[in-house]
UniProtKB/TrEMBL annotation:
Residues 456-621 form the Helicase C-terminal domain. It is an enzyme of class 5 (isomerase). CDD domains: DEXHc_RecG (cd17992), RecG_wedge_OBF (cd04488), SF2_C_RecG (cd18811). It comes from Fodinibius salinus. Pfam families: DEAD (PF00270), Helicase_C (PF00271), RecG_dom3_C (PF19833), RecG_wedge (PF17191). Belongs to the helicase family. RecG subfamily. PANTHER family: ATP-DEPENDENT DNA HELICASE HOMOLOG RECG, CHLOROPLASTIC. This is ATP-dependent DNA helicase RecG. Plays a critical role in recombination and DNA repair. Helps process Holliday junction intermediates to mature products by catalyzing branch migration. Has replication fork regression activity, unwinds stalled or blocked replication forks to make a HJ that can be resolved. Has a DNA unwinding activity characteristic of a DNA helicase with 3'-5' polarity. It catalyses: Couples ATP hydrolysis with the unwinding of duplex DNA by translocating in the 3'-5' direction; ATP + H2O = ADP + phosphate + H(+). Its EC number is 5.6.2.4.
Length: 689
C-alpha cells in the first residue's frame, strides 16, 4: 500500500507528510504519538478542581459567544452537564470553532482546568462531538496525540486524521518480528506488530508503555549490535601483543621507586589493564578520573608493562604544552630506571627531530611523548605495543582505527578527565571498556568554594592579595561566548587593566583565544614558572594544565558557565600543598538554573555528581558541547532515561555477535534482514566501511 491510497490524502498532504519525514506507510506507522489523552474516565463538572490534571468532560453546548477586544478577544463555548457548567476558551482559530460547533450539541472537552473568578474553564480544549450521550464507549479511549508542525498544520493534517490513517495502515502493513523470541520473552517485549497496535490504539496506559519499551529496546539493540560487530571486525580479529612478563621495570618501579601508596582506584585500574594486555586481544580501555585522581601513574604502569616485554610506548596529549608537561613528569618518575624517553613536538630543530625518528624506528627510543600528531604523521616505530591518549576532546573511533594501522596492533588506553555519566559513556564509548578512578590521592586538601555577588569585588581582591603575598598564584577567568568573542575580549582586557593596577606588586598576565598559539604558550609558561602570579584569561585555560602552586580560581560572571565547565576550571587548583579557594562571582540577572548550578558547585566537588546534574540540565547533545560529539541519535530511546534498557540491549547484542557473528543461525534470519542495511549505513558514518 502507498500513502496516496489513504483517504483524504492528496498531493498537498503527501508533501506535508514527506516534509515531516513520512515517505511510506511504514514511516507513518513509525510516526509515534508524543503524548496521550486519557479519556477513559469522564469527570462531572462539579467535581473539577482548579489546576487539575488533564480531564474529560461531556456536556451540551449552552452558549457560544465572542468576548473581549484587541488581544483579549476570545471565543467562549459554555457547556453544561447534569451537575454544573464550564467554559471552553479559544484565543485563536475562533472562526473554525464557530463553524464546527453549534448551541444545543453534545461535546466532550479534554484539557487542564483553570478557575477564573467563579468560572471553571479550559483553554483551547481538544474536543469531540458526541452523537449519542447514552453510549459513550466510543469516546472512552486513550487518544494518541501526534506531533504537529507547520506543514502539517497548513494542510489541516490533524492528529485525528493521522490517527485514522494509522488504522488502515496497520491493517495493510506487514511488520514481521525480528527480535529473537528468547530475547523478547526474557524482557517481556510484545511482538512487533502488536506493539504498533499498542502505540497507536492502546487500550490502557500500560499497553503503550510496553510498546514504547519494545521500540526503545529494538533501537538500542540494533545500535549495540553494530558496535559489537564493528569491534569484532576491526579490533578483535587482529592479534595484539601479549605483555606476559611484568618483570624488571614494572616490579622495580612499583616496589622501590614509587614515592607514594596507590589509591584503590589506581590499583583496580592497573589490574584491569594487566588483564587486557595479557589477553591476546587488543586493549581498548577508557580510564576516567577527575583531575588530580592520578591517571598518569596508571598510564606509566601500562607503559612499563610494554617495555618489560620489549615493546615501545607512545604517549599523546592534545596540546604541546601538555605534552611537555607529561614529558617532564614521566622523565622524573623514570629517572632511576634506564629508559630512553623522548619528546616529539613541532618546534624542534630538524636534526633533533630526525634523531628521534631514527631512534624510534631503530628501537633505541622506548617512549615517545607528543601531540596526537605522533600517530597520524609518518612516524615509524620499531615495535609499538601501547598508545596512551590523553584526551581533551573526543578521540574518536576513526583516530583509534589509525592507531591500529601501526604495525603490531598496539593496545590503546584513553584517559579522560571529563567525568561522563555512565549512560553517556556507554553509548559514546560503547566500544571501549571503562575503568574509573573515583578516589583522590590522600592528603590533598579539598578546594574551598565560595559564591559571591559582584559588589563584593573589593573584599575578594583583598583576599586575593593576601594569598599572593603568601606566595600563591591566581587564575581570573572571564566567560567567552562564541557569538561575541570581541565583546568578551573587552571584558577580559578591561579586567586585565584593572587587576594590573590593583596588584601592582605582582605580575599580571593575559591569555585569550585570539592570541597566536606561541603567544599563548609563552604566557602560560610564565605562569608555570611563577614569573606571572595572576593570570587573567578567557576560558582557554580549561585544558589540563598543571600549575601546582596556583591556589585561587576566580570566575567572573560564573552564572554564564555550565556546570562541567566550572568543574573543569576548579580542577585547575588544589593540586599542591596549599589550601586552595574557588570564588564564583555572579552578576545581575541570575536565572533559576544558574542559581542551581552555583549552589551545586558549592555543595559538592564530586565530578560524577556534577556531570550527572549537568547532563540532566542540558541533555546529552549540549552536555558534550558540539553537534559533532559523535553521539548517536536515537529516535525513541533516551539514553539518559532508558539506561537500563540500554544495558539489557547491550548485553544481548554482544552475546549474539560473539556466538553468531554473521547472523547465520535460522533464528537470526529476520534480524539479519533488518540489521544488514542498518550496519552498512552505520559503518559509512564512522568511516570504517
Ligand atoms: P590526573 O589524573 O589529573 O592526570 P595526575 O596523574 O597528574 O592526575 O596526578 C596528580 C598528582 O597527584 C600528581 O602530582 C601525582 O604525582 C600525585 N599522585 C598520584 N597518585 C598519587 C597517590 N596515590 N598518592 C599521592 N599522590 C599521588
Ligand atoms: Mg593528567
Amino acid at each position: 500500500m502507498k500513502l496516496i491510497d489513504l483517504p483524504q490524502l492528496g498531493t498537498k498532504r503527501l508533501n506535508a507528510l514527506s516534509e515531516s519525514g513520512i515517505k511510506s506507510t511504514l514511516d507513518l506507522l513509525n510516526y509515534f504519538p508524543h503524548r496521550y489523552l486519557d479519556r477513559t474516565t469522564i469527570t462531572k463538572i462539579r467535581e473539577l478542581r482548579d489546576n487539575s490534571e488533564e480531564v474529560t468532560v461531556v456536556g451540551r453546548i449552552k452558549k457560544i459567544q465572542q468576548k473581549g477586544h484587541g488581544n483579549k478577544k476570545r471565543l467562549e463555548v459554555i457547556i453544561q452537564d447534569d451537575t454544573a457548567s464550564l467554559k471552553g476558551v479559544w484565543f485563536k482559530g475562533a472562526h473554525y470553532i464557530r463553524k464546527n460547533l453549534s448551541e444545543g450539541e453534545a461535546v466532550a472537552f479534554f484539557g487542564n482546568v483553570k478557575k477564573y473568578g467563579r468560572y471553571l474553564s479550559i483553554a483551547h480544549p481538544e474536543y469531540e462531538k458526541v452523537s449519542n450521550t447514552s453510549d459513550l464507549s466510543q469516546l472512552k479511549q486513550i487518544m494518541p496525540i501526534y506531533p504537529g508542525n507547520k506543514s502539517l498544520a497548513k494542510t489541516s493534517t490533524t492528529s485525528k486524521l493521522i490517527h485514522q490513517w494509522q488504522k488502515i495502515t496497520l491493517k495493510h502493513e506487514k511488520t514481521p518480528e525480528f527480535l529473537p523470541d528468547s530475547i523478547r520473552q526474557s524482557y517481556s517485549l510484545p511482538k512487533r506488530h502488536e506493539s504498533y497496535r499498542m502505540i497507536h490504539f492502546p487500550e490502557s496506559k500500560s499497553e503503550y508503555q510496553k510498546a514504547f519499551k519494545r521500540f526503545k529496546f529494538e533501537e538500542l539493540f540494533l545500535f549495540e549490535l553494530s558496535v559489537a560487530k564493528s569491534k569484532h571486525e576491526i579490533i578483535d580479529k587482529h592479534d595484539a601483543p601479549v605483555f606476559e612478563d611484568l618483570g624488571n621495570y614494572t616490579q622495580r618501579f612499583f616496589n622501590t621507586h614509587l614515592p607514594f601508596e596507590l589509591t584503590d582506584g589506581q590499583k583496580s585500574a592497573l589490574s584491569d589493564i594487566k588483564k587486557d594486555v595479557r589477553s591476546g586481544k587488543q586493549m581498548n580501555r577508557l580510564l576516567q578520573g577527575d583531575v588530580g585522581s592520578g591517571k598518569t601513574i596508571v598510564a606509566l604502569g601500562a607503559i612499563l608493562m610494554a617495555l618489560d616485554n620489549g615493546y615501545q610506548a607512545a604517549f599523546m596529549a592534545p596540546t604541546e604544552i601538555l605534552a611537555e608537561q607529561h614529558f617532564r613528569t614521566l622523565s622524573n618518575f623514570l629517572d632511576p630506571l634506564d629508559i630512553n624517553i623522548r619528546l616529539l613536538v613541532g618546534n624542534q630543530k630538524k636534526t633533533v627531530r630526525t634523531d628521534i625518528l631514527t631512534d624510534l624506528e631503530g628501537g633505541s627510543c622506548d617512549i615517545v611523548v607528543g601531540t596526537h600528531a605522533v600517530i597520524q604523521e609518518q612516524v615509524n616505530f620499531y615495535k609499538l605495543g601501547l598508545a596512551i591518549v590523553d584526551e581533551q576532546h573526543r578521540f574518536g573511533v576513526k583516530q583509534r582505527a589509525e592507531i591500529l594501522k601501526k604495525g603490531s596492533h598496539p593496545h590503546v588506553l584513553v584517559m579522560s578527565a571529563t567525568p561522563i555519566p555512565r549512560s553517556l559513556a556507554m553509548t559514546l564509548y560503547s566500544d571501549l571498556d571503562i575503568s574509573i578512578i573515583k578516589d583522590l590521592p590522600g592528603g590533598r586538601k579539598p578546594v574551598k568554594t565560595a559564591v559571591r555577588h559582584q559588589k563584593k569585588h573589593d573584599e575578594i581582591y583583598n583576599f586575593v592579595e593576601q594569598e599572593l603575598n603568601k606566595g600563591g598564584q591566581a587564575y581570573v577567568v572571564y566567560p567567552l561566548v562564541e557569538e561575541s568573542e570581541k565583546m568578551d575580549l573587552k571584558d577580559a582586557s578591561a579586567g586585565f587593566k584593572k587587576l594590573k593596577k590593583r596588584f601592582s606588586n605582582h605580575e599580571v598576565g593575559l591569555l585569550h583565544g585570539q592570541m597566536k598559539s606561541e603567544e599563548k604558550d609563552a604566557v602560560m609558561l610564565q605562569f608555570i614558572n611563577n614569573e606571572v602570579q595572576v593570570l587573567v584569561s578567557t576560558t582557554v585555560i580549561e585544558v589540563g594544565v598543571d600549575v601546582s602552586n596556583a591556589s585561587l580560581m576566580i570566575v567572573e560572571h560564573a552564572e554564564r558557565f555550565g556546570l562541567s565547565q566550572l568543574h573543569q576550571l576548579r580542577g585547575r587548583i588544589g593540586r599542591g600543598e596549599r589550601q586552595s579557594y574557588c570564588i564564583l562571582i555572579y552578576g545581575q540577572k541570575v536565572s533559576k538554573e544558574a542559581q542551581f548550578r552555583l549552589r551545586k558547585m558549592a555543595e559538592t566537588d564530586d565530578g560524577f555528581q556534577i556531570a550527572e546534574a549537568d547532563l540532566e540540565l542540558r541533555g546529552p547533545g549540549d552536555f558534550l558541547g558540539t553537534k559533532q560529539s559523535g553521539l548517536p541519535e536515537f529516535k525513541v530511546a533516551d539514553i539518559v532515561e532508558d539506561q537500563w534498557i540500554l544495558e539489557q540491549a547491550k548485553s544481548e547484542a554482544w552475546k549474539i555477535i560473539s556466538n553468531d557473528f554473521n547472523l547465520e543461525q535460522p533464528k537470526h534470519q529476520e534480524l539479519k534482514k533488518v540489521f544488514t542495511p542498518y550496519y552498512k549505513k552505520k559503518s559509512k558514518f564512522y568511516g570504517m566501511g
